[in-house]
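Work Package 3 (structural annotation) set out to generate three-dimensional models for the target panel prioritized at the project kickoff. During this period the team completed the workflow that converts sequence records into discrete structure tokens, so that structures can be stored uniformly alongside our sequence database. As a representative example, we reproduce one entry of 268 residues exactly as it appears in the project archive.
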Amino acid sequence: MEVHYHPNLHKKKIYEYLIEFVLIFSAVTLGFFAENYREKIVLEEQTSKIIVQLHSELKKDLIDLNKTITIRRKNDSLNNLLYYIVSKNQIEKKTILYCIQHRLLNSTGNFETNTLSIKELENTSLFKNIKSNGLQRLIEEYSSMVLRIDERKVRENNYLEKYGDDLRHSLFNEYPNQVVSIDTLDVLKGAILKDTTFKFNGINFQCPLTNLFVPSNIEIHKFYREEYLNKMMRLNNLRLSTTNSFISPAINSCTNLLKEIEKTYKIE
């Protein structure tokens, strides 16, 4: 006759189930927090890396913005000199000078930003990981200024596309900018200039001319003086407004942003 032994099965009590639940829940929760912490560390490292890159780009921007101001002031002084000569009826007295400056009339001094990192920050979730709210605000402020400078550049270029030919060529016969052969010199007598210096408001400006040809006998056309002056004044005001209201504030904004980055992320 076989004897069957029945094991003494332990019946778990409620508090044992509760302990198991707490242990499992704690493990899952700790794993969740550990993963979040790891992800936070990775994002902070990525953000710091982009901020360091942004700092380098801003330093280039600051140099370029100051160069832009210098170039624009030189060209704006040139435009003001042209306006002065026409408004004071001195074209005949300063014909050669006017011809040279007239050829230089352009919209140089356009700023191109180097800050690709700002777009990378703005288009990803990294922007919210920046350590300082003040730094976030300064980045947004500078980005907005760069966009407005681009808009002004478009306005200036559109204006010169519409009226540039009138301002550059309305007063003179068309002459080649550069003389490329001896035959041309036989027909048009003149000189090839590599640079010129002009003085305006007590300041001397030197401008490279890239072998600009200036004929000996410059023929001045009749033109509508008031219309010409009006177009020139509008160009000068447009460029002056861009310089004073957009580029100069951008220099201050860029400087403040650099200082805040250096302070927040300990970058020298």
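The mean pLDDT is 78.
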